[in-house]
Amino acid sequence: MPITAADLRAAAQTAVGEDAVRDTALVGGTAAVRLTAPADPGQHDAFIQHAARAVAAADTRAGQSLRAITIELLDDSGRVVQSKTYPAVPLEDAAQHHRPISGLRPQPAPASSKALPDVRHVIAVGAGKGGVGKSTIATNLAVGLARRGHAVGLMDGDIYGPSMPTMLGLDPLEASVVAGMLQPFTVHGLKAMTIGKLVDPEKPLIWRGPMAHGAFKQLVEQTNWGELDYLVIDLPPGTGDVPLTMAQMLSLTGAVIVCTPQKVAQDDAVRALRMFQQLGVEVLGVVENMSYFVGDDGKEYDLFGKGGAAKMSKRLGVPFLGAVPITTALRENSDAGDPTANFKRGPLADSLNALVEATESQASLAALRQGKSRPTLNIS
User: Fold this and answer.
1) Facing residues of 254 across strands?
2) What is the pLDDT along the chain (380 residues), one digit of tens a residue?
3) Which of 54, 5, 47, 61 has its CA nearest to residue 30?
4) Where do you find CATH 3.40.50.300 in the chain?
5) CATH 3.30.300 occupies which residues in the chain?
6) How far apart are CA 46 and CA 50, in angstroms?
7) H, E, C per residue of the chain
8) Is 5-97 a CATH 3.30.300 domain?
9) CATH fold for domain 119-370
């Protein structure tokens, strides 16, 4: 029987005392324990290790269902002063294996990963910083692929700031569960799921790594995606827990990096790009969002400069997937939950269609390199 929340709390209290245990949680195979830090900083490491060993022992007795144990020490104000994550191993191996795993390089999922076996291509859309329009690009990429005749899913993996309820017009719809599986929303020719429809829309998600890991894992594994040609995953900005979880869970076709023309955005985009490369995830290319503005006079205005992302991608040796302009229509359609309207005629539709076509081509090439492509038979 897997370890329970009661077992977890009892184990921690046995190790460090009942008063020292602030709270505990079991999320996605990770045990999270928050403790009041000892007054003497010299005792912090030993305090953490005692708690980790006790939890590992309780997990061993329960049949070893945990994958990791996170111990956090908090001061009187609730600020985390120290945090360590350990692999969950039997107690007799603890002396050898109970070392923090934060410094280890996460390994990407093998090609034979059982997660999402019916999805041909998984494409992550990431960015080094927020505010560059990553969710806008992810949404329109998914809609564009669906318009080209593909079976497409869109997963809002931006755990802390889900945008899909608004951008896809999901506000009037209710999430449903059938046979223990979340049923994706069918809108704009694709299947979509977002944590924004599973929590209070005005409640902030103040979650640390284990909670974010568990939420992302649930969206991936407990959504009834069915057979898909593409699953587009909108990630939180930056290089934190969720991208690492994704790389460990899924066999990705590749990642798309979004940035704006100015150098400050490119600096952060480079970090995101390097993160995916370090995790063994192929970078399909870079998108320059907010590339230029077309005024009522028909002239183009380079509000943030132009072409910076293209130069960056050339310097880093990755494809440039295209530039998307700033338009009033894009803002209005996003707020109205109607991304399909972005594909009407005009500069916006042209840029989005070019982006979709370039991404589709790069995904096919990546699949060939990774041995994921399927043979096709054309009969004439």
Assistant:
1) 123
2) 778 888 889 999 999 998 899 888 776 577 888 899 998 888 898 898 889 889 988 888 888 778 778 888 888 877 778 878 777 654 344 334 434 333 334 444 444 345 788 999 999 998 877 778 899 999 999 999 999 999 999 999 887 778 899 999 998 888 888 888 889 999 999 999 998 887 766 665 555 556 766 778 888 888 999 999 999 999 887 766 677 778 778 889 999 999 988 887 788 888 888 888 888 889 999 999 988 887 777 777 777 767 778 888 888 889 999 999 988 889 999 999 999 999 998 889 999 999 999 999 999 988 888 776 554 444 54
3) 5
4) 119-370
5) 5-97
6) 6
7) CCCCHHHHHHHHHHHHCHHHEEEEEEECCEEEEEEECCCCHHHHHHHHHHHHHHHHHHHHHHCCCCCEEEEEEECCCCCEEEEEEEECCCHHHHHHHCCCCCCCCCCCCCCCCCCCCCEEEEEEEECCCCCCCHHHHHHHHHHHHHHCCCCEEEEECCCCCCCHHHHCCCCCCCCEEECCEEECEEECCEEEEEHHHCCCCCCCCCCCHHHHHHHHHHHHHCECCCCEEEEEEECCCCCCHHHHHHHHHCCCCEEEEEECCCHHHHHHHHHHHHHHHHCCCCEEEEEEEEEEEECCCCCEECECECCHHHHHHHHHCCCEEEEEEECHHHHHHHHCCCHHHHHCCCHHHHHHHHHHHHHHHHHHHHHHHHCCCCCCCCCC
8) yes
9) Rossmann fold (3.40.50)
Q: Which two tokens stand for residue 189?
A: 């020719």
Structure token digits, residue 251:
């066999």
